[in-house]
Amino acid sequence: MFAQSVWSLYNTSNSPLLDNSVTVLEKDNNGAIWVGCTWGLFLYENGNWVDFTDSVPNPQIRSVEVDVYNNVWVGTLNGLAMYNGSWNSFNNDSLSSFTINDIESDSSGVWLGTINGLYLFSNSVLSLILDNSSLEPFLNVSSLSYIGDSLCIGTINGGLGYLYNNTVNWTNISSGMLDNTVVDIAVDETGIWCASPYGGVQRHFNNGDWYFYTPNLFLGWPSPDILSLFITENSSLLVGSNEGGLIEFDKVNNSIIYNITTNNSGLVDNKINDLLIDNEGLYWIGTENGLNTWNGVLSSIESTDYNQPFNLNNNQLLLSSPENIRIYTINGQKLIDKEKTKQVNISGFSTGVYFVQINNITYKVVIY
Fold first, then answer.
1. In terms of domains, do 10 and 155 share one?
2. Whole domain around residue 348: which residue ranges?
3. Are 130 and 214 members of one domain?
4. How many domains does the chain have?
5. Is the predicted pLDDT of residue 302 greater than 70, yes or no?
6. Residue 280 to residue 295: CA distance in whole angstroms
7. What is the pTM of this model?
8. pLDDT in tens, 64-123
9. Does one domain contain both 322 and 282?
């Protein structure tokens, strides 16, 4: 049985990208992928690229948001634009001076997280919601996301806010956080997950408790500096780090499924600015050195014994019923010894030949 790991790379040498630093990835309602770079905005759809760099107020792209009507909102270093088949730029005196770090949309309009505070843009009217007076000494909004009816507001060194019915409640280091900066937010049924440069992933439960994922606090965690988060359809958490590569995290069992780096995969750079999974299950990974896509299979795995009582699927060895299983290296080192199990995770195995022993019968598996 065979599972093939497939990686692709898009950069300035082999695609229309004008810059290899990919800052933003967003999927629209048609499944097309919007790619924002330190210099340039691009659309990838059905194998074709479109360059929209000249259509936005500034080529330095900071945020992209798709609303329920499939309008694509683009925040730049200086100004806001919207695409709905044609482009509209909103570069009045206020917006043209804004660096728009993040955008979140709802029935009210689009919320803009800027270096000058939080704004609501609705029916072409810009309204200031929160500025310096709401949080000392400044309010630099870096990330936005909804949990229920509350708008979560991540800031640079100002903590985390929850805006509900025109009232904002702030939490920070003094009330339980490890790091006052939140650069990305992911939401699930348990609460919110915050990406931070020094606090790793900060998890805020609905009951108010905090839990932290850093190298010092969680065994095997590769980096304290986290840049991006994405929750998958199977409820795992994808984590993009600064120099620590990509982590897929099992939220239910509170464990690392794998840590992808340049050393064990086709990943081009260990600094991951943004990431998502498209409608076909393909991983899109924006790095400082190009845009990777990946099919999600960690290794090429083949069993040379075709009557084996197990299946190899996406780095899992699966049995139909609980069995006693041992796995050895070609040199005889025992790696796995489990009783009455139906599943073994082999994602951490390096390339090579392994022997799988099930109820004292041995089978050979090759990972390459």
1. yes
2. 301-367
3. yes
4. 2
5. no
6. 9
7. 0.82
8. 999 999 999 999 999 999 999 999 988 665 676 789 999 999 999 999 999 989 999 998
9. no
